[in-house]
Amino acid sequence: MASVVQKYGGSAVTSPEQIRKIAERIIQSYNDRNDVVVVISARAGETNRLIEMAQEMCPRQTGSEYDLLISAGEQVSIGLLALCISSLGYKVRTYLGWQVPIITDSLHTRASIEYIDPAKIRADLNHGAIVLVAGFQGIDRSGTITTLGRGGGDTSAVALAHALGAEVCELYSDVDGIFTADPAICDDARKIEKISYDEMLELASQGARGVQIRAIEYAKKHNVTIHVRSAFTAERGTLVVKEHMPMEGVVVTGIVADKNEAKIAVLGVPDKPGSAAKILTGLADKDISVDMIVQNVGQDGLADITFSISKTDLEKAHQITTQIAKEVNAREVLADRNISKVSIVGLGMKNHAGVAARMFTALAYNNINIQMISTSEIKVSVAIEEKYTELAVRVLHEAFKVDQCSE
Amino acid sequence: MASVVQKYGGSAVTSPEQIRKIAERIIQSYNDRNDVVVVISARAGETNRLIEMAQEMCPRQTGSEYDLLISAGEQVSIGLLALCISSLGYKVRTYLGWQVPIITDSLHTRASIEYIDPAKIRADLNHGAIVLVAGFQGIDRSGTITTLGRGGGDTSAVALAHALGAEVCELYSDVDGIFTADPAICDDARKIEKISYDEMLELASQGARGVQIRAIEYAKKHNVTIHVRSAFTAERGTLVVKEHMPMEGVVVTGIVADKNEAKIAVLGVPDKPGSAAKILTGLADKDISVDMIVQNVGQDGLADITFSISKTDLEKAHQITTQIAKEVNAREVLADRNISKVSIVGLGMKNHAGVAARMFTALAYNNINIQMISTSEIKVSVAIEEKYTELAVRVLHEAFKVDQCSE
């Protein structure tokens, strides 16, 4: 049977008109003889409303009570959508996480899915029902409600597609698919027809919108085909698949920029073992992720340690770093909000030498100074001054001829 | 073990300050060495918000999707209260209806509780936890969420008290207890210390606030002691118990008025068998409850049929009755919004003749005309012109010396 799991984000179920549109779209898929399972998030703003209530009540709560509270939002969404589909004369069945059940571990607010029992949903599909499932939530083995963390609805959808052996997992949002670069920045940006899990992972990690990282990892592990597409057009979007080697000569699949980066430099650190570790451990203890790291040791035996973090963490990170800098007798700490990260991603890099060099040359030719670099097998990221972000994306898109179709 | 089930209404959990106050009250009960189980309703307005959403989506829906939607409110309340109690350093366990489980029949939006398994809650109490349970909701035997109808939280609390063998079920609200008459109308109104289930049932049926009728019926059936009391004072309220025969000479326990009454008179109905039945069946088919009914047959062989309904149903009832009146060749239909119902209730009536006569005399002496009458073994209700409501309550309170303590 040709079955499909569709996931709609919270922005698609905000108003009654939107819910009606989504309902019609779902019914159309159903009438095309697909077995349709739909995963819905909480209405946009609903989960934030619940989180605000919780914080007003008592800040910094993260246990099972918190998950109980914030999982109420999906119940409202699937209730409304079910009412609508049912009123249009179609048979509909709804499932909260515990009703499927979607079994997770017990790490509240960021639980991982361990097992999904597809039996009841399969029976409903066989009886001709459209099945709606609340995303983002599950239960642990003791029967307590858990949530999967922000964006967990994507993961719910991919995991359900795997459990049901669905042909494809369609992730609907307000973007048309994955682009070679942000079309708002780059006129030549082209929608990518197919992309590999690894490339998608790198793009998402470097700031591309469209799919949650954990959902891509899950899809990669279980070989679930993802279709990233728009809820507002019938056009095909981007397929995320296992293997997709680009044509000979195509090196870069996509370019992505992330302005949510900031930089901290610790200058004049006595070059003793453990100084860098002390700083990085201090940040990790406060749940601050460090992205790029550079360490230069001067001839005077003093090192400069520079690293990037997200802009939202800058203030806290600056405070912590200043404290530790004193302890390790560093000279000074500088913070800089005005940076961004631009990355090129492509499986083709594996087989092409000199990709980084070509990137740096193109940027240098346009007087864009590189402050930090990090690389993986299929990605090169650079930190640059924030004001050059859009220019850098256009320059690289041109340099690597990403606009030319790789299909 | 001295265990107590406490139920707090939705108006008690609206603001963070209120939730904190309730939390402190619960903790105080806990520290007094009670095993405490708390039933919470949705925050005031929350369920209405969800119902409005549903109606905007598609009016007149009442199935399982509707119950799924409107049961989201309690989840928010118990989540917030649990966060608060937990942040004050006390061990807390939460239960949604399905987690207890509270098993109901499958009559969505007005399900009845069939069975409650107390095992998990008992275990939590034995481990020193305060237990919070979402009121108003359950699941049927197929695992679908059900709701108990408006005010179902009272029934959840009484049923839990029964299942747990609790000493008492405390129903908290913003009233101090059950009064001999509305203190806003009658200066001499006195809080009743103890009242029987049957009296409480009559008072509630005739419009008294405080306890849901179905909860009283459940309590009566299973002999659960109810304590109706204020959430804002430490004073004792009113105990609702099995048997409570008043002292010799006390006839009336309470007086209650209901302004939500309206009257329809169908005049000149040919006195043929089935005419009255046709009208009443037509109303019942549209879910309109008829309260008092009077039929007079004149010498001309034409009957007048008069009945009372709730004011909110008047327009619909008028329309239906006019239609049927035509079919049975009645002369005309009159509708009257300006009536109210005043009732006297008391177990003492069983042993006292002439109670109704004494009531009618007192009203007549004050020029209050009686339009309709209905009686039961422990109640007499009269319909009067609405503007006399308060006067009638005061006159009857005085006439039956209800202000004099019956304890």
From TrEMBL, chains A, B:
Question: Which GO BP annotation is one of this protein's?
Answer: lysine biosynthetic process via diaminopimelate
Protein name per UniProt: Aspartokinase
Q: Which GO terms describe its cellular component?
A: cytosol
Q: So where does substrate get bound?
A: T47, E74
Give the SUPFAM superfamilies listed for this entry.
ACT-like (SSF55021), Carbamate kinase-like (SSF53633)
Q: Name one GO molecular function term.
A: ATP binding
Q: In which pathway does it act?
A: Amino-acid biosynthesis; L-methionine biosynthesis via de novo pathway; L-homoserine from L-aspartate: step 1/3; Amino-acid biosynthesis; L-lysine biosynthesis via DAP pathway; (S)-tetrahydrodipicolinate from L-aspartate: step 1/4; Amino-acid biosynthesis; L-threonine biosynthesis; L-threonine from L-aspartate: step 1/5
Domain ACT, residue spans:
264-338, 344-407
Entries under InterPro entries matching the protein? AceGlu_kinase-like_sf, ACT-like_dom_sf, ACT_Aspartokinase, ACT_dom, AKii-LysC-BS, Asp/Glu/Uridylate_kinase, Asp_kin_monofn, Asp_kinase
